[in-house]
Amino acid sequence: MRRSRPYPADEHMTEDQPAESAGAERRPRGDHGAAGRVTVVVATRNRRRDLERSLPRHEAPVILVDNGSTDGTPAFVRERFPHVEVVEAWRNLGAPGRDLGVRLARTPYVAFADDDSWWAPGALARAADVLDAHPRLAVLAGRVLVGPEERPDPTCHGMAASPLPAEPDLPGPSVLGFLACGAVVRRDAHLAAGGFDDVVFFFGEEERLALDLAAAGWGLAYVDDVVAHHHPSPSRDPEGRRALAVRNAVLTAVMRRPWPVVARAVLTAARGGPAGRRGLRDAARRLPRALARRRTPPWRVEAARASLDASPVGGAYPLPAGIWADRVAAARKCRVGEPAEGGNTIMANTPNPIDLQKHLSGVDYPAKRDDLVRVAREKGADDALVGTLEKIPDREYDGPNAVSKAVFGDD
């Protein structure tokens, strides 16, 4: 990891300081109410054009985490925006890359932003005031306005109408999810909960963290007058994002939800058309890691999460920001526990990945195909699962991931 600081670790550049190089962008006029209380953390990869537009708009100190860009982003930012602290991760860490910035922050609160998002003037001062006044609040979920039309993100409608009981020590509706690019977090609480995880990696990474914070007794609330702007690129792949949403919904369920919820997530994915099936295959490859981190929250947290699942506005998780129309369609198709609107082809001949791992839990790797079949039979696997294992290549497998790839394919 490479890191550059344009000023001492315990100081922040003020608006009165000159730019450090000729032609460099001057730092925007500071949000004095947020000074010393909030740091903006941005994770990016190969998005120079978006950063050129968004970085001048930030009103608090910025830590930029570069997730292995190959387009010269770190050098560009250092030259053009010398007030920004740049941290190079050298490889793509996904959402957990943000945690590098959180650890380096010297302020009690951290505001996340994407490379194509920024906070409205005065928003971070307001957020800091709210967090100061509500010591149990770990995540302030703000209102995200999408695109030049500034339409509220669909997830914000759901958070504003949260069916969870009001909590008197929180500043707004209680929630169990948030959009990272519209969230301000209490730094110590975020780090104590483990930050973002590398199983989900990216897209929908907020839900597991939200559940863990709630399990630790922290509060999460939606505050409508703290506003962020998000201008996502229309070039993003809608089908790929839907598959990611499905994959990560299944993985998050495996890590934190009861098994019946996991089963519903798998069934919904199987019925979700090509994107759903692709997401399910991708989830199967990460399943061993998700199972290793499985830890269900206290009943009160699961009861709250279940009430959101049953609510018309709750959804299974807030989808991270993307194209407006795509977000609505993805939310409909990927909601845990509800049938998908289209693509109702069930993978009748494909085993449930949860069952696959359960019935192979006694395998001593490396193992050959016949060993896998034998253990599956001993564990009571049905004929369909055994038949699938009998059809995979007859070779030695070094672990569950290798078996999953053989069963579900490599794409």
Automatic annotation (TrEMBL):
Source species, domain of life: Bacteria
Membrane spanning residue stretches: none
Molecular function GO terms recorded: glycosyltransferase activity
Residue span(s) of domain Glycosyltransferase 2-like: 40-190
Family matches, as Pfam families: DUF2795, Glycos_transf_2
Keyword Cell cycle belongs to the record: no
InterPro entries, sorted: DUF2795, Glyco_trans_2-like, Glycosyltransf_2, Nucleotide-diphossugar_trans
Keyword Glycosyltransferase attributed: yes
Region described as Disordered: 1-37
Start-end of Basic and acidic residues biased regions: 23-34
Family, per entry: Belongs to the glycosyltransferase 2 family.
Protein name per Swiss-Prot or TrEMBL: GT2 family glycosyltransferase
Lineage: Bacteria, Bacillati, Actinomycetota, Actinomycetes, Streptosporangiales
